[in-house]
């Protein structure tokens, strides 16, 4: 009986020892599994990090490729622009050379135009003579100025011609001095285009007109002429509505206008 008990105790002790050893082995296996799992997590984290870095590097590389392609296209555009600008520079150089030739030709032409304008003023009906002579004198001064472009000089000369041309299509009333028989009088002048230039002396109200044929002032007699001229002066000053008036072109002819 004692032996049986001892044997049973021994078997129980062996059984308990085996169970304890098995449990330790299971725990070790579980610990190893946990450690491997944690190690796997760490490895996966490293893999994920490497993948993310690789993805970032690829994105950055593709971004640089797009930037390089954009720069290549930009350089091509700049090259074309430079080529076009070079052609434009060549054209401008040729134009500048042509302008220099034109300037050498146009300045003498403008000088002749001013001479012709001056001659025309002196031969024309003598209205606003001082103003028109001053305009011609200013054009001569302008032609000699180096700070004024040729284009501006040409514009001013053509403008003077246009002003003279407009005189032939307008009616005008103005005050000026009238020289008669070595005497000077204040007078009201009435200009109707270049058809007629008449005067009315301020004070005594004598009236007359410029005779183109004799190139002299001719006095007009009679109240009707004074009334016609006064009426024309009022029309020119826009004091009354336009209407037909009588003007004298020469002593032998009267024209209704």
Could you walk me through the main structural features you see in this protein, from its secondary elements to its overall organization?
It is a single chain. This protein has helices spanning about 1-125, 130-145, 150-165, 225-235, and strands spanning about 170-180, 185-190, 195-200, 205-210, 215-220, 245-250, 255. The chain folds into two domains: about 15-165, no CATH class; about 170-255, no CATH class. It contains four helices and seven strands. The N and C termini lie far apart (about 170 Å). It has a five-stranded antiparallel beta sheet with strand order 1-2-3-4-5, with helices on one face. Strands 6-7 form a two-stranded antiparallel ribbon.
Brief rundown of the structure:
It is built from four helices and seven strands. It has 257 residues and is α+β, with helices and mostly antiparallel strands. The longest helix has 122 residues, at 2-123.
* Helix-strand makeup class: alpha+beta
End-to-end CA span: 172 Å
Q: Can you give the helix content as a percent range?
A: 55-70%
User: Which spans of ≥5 residues are poorly predicted at pLDDT below 50?
Assistant: none
Number of domains: 2
Tell me about the biggest sheet?
5 strands, antiparallel
Counted by DSSP, the helix tally is 4
> How many E-type strands?
7
Q: Roughly what fraction of the amino acids lie in strands? A: 15-25%
**If you compute it from the alpha carbons, what radius of gyration comes out, rounded to the nearest whole angstrom?**
56 Å
Q: Please provide the ordered H/E string of secondary-structure elements.
A: HHHEEEEEHEE
Q: What number is the mean pLDDT?
A: 82
Oligomer state equals single chain
Sheet with most strands: strand arrangement:
1-2-3-4-5
Overall geometry comes to: rod-shaped
């Amino acid at each position: 009986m004692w032996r049986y008990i001892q044997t049973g105790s021994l078997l129980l002790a062996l059984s308990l020892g085996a169970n304890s050893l098995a449990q330790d082995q299971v725990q070790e296996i579980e610990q190893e599994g946990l450690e491997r799992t944690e190690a796997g997590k760490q490895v996966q984290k490293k893999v994920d990090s490497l993948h993310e870095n690789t993805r970032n590097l690829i994105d950055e590389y593709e971004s640089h490729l797009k930037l390089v392609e954009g720069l290549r296209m930009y350089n091509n555009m700049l090259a074309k622009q430079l080529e076009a600008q070079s052609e434009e520079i060549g054209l401008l150089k040729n134009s500048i050379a042509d302008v220099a030739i034109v300037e050498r030709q146009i300045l003498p032409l403008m000088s002749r135009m001013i001479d012709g304008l001056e001659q025309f003023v002196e031969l024309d009906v003598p209205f606003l003579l001082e103003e028109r002579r001053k305009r011609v004198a200013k054009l001569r001064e302008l032609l000699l100025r180096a700070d004024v472009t040729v284009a501006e000089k040409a514009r001013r000369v053509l403008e003077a011609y246009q002003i003279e041309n407009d005189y032939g299509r307008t009616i005008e009333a103005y005050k000026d001095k009238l020289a008669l028989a070595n005497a000077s009088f204040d007078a009201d002048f009435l200009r109707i285009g270049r058809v007629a230039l008449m005067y009315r002396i301020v004070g005594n109200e004598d009236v007359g007109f410029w005779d183109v044929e004799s190139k002299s002032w001719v006095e007009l007699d009679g109240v009707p002429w004074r009334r016609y001229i006064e009426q024309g002066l009022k029309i020119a000053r826009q004091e009354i509505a336009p209407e037909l008036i009588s003007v004298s072109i020469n002593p032998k002819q009267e024209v209704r206008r």
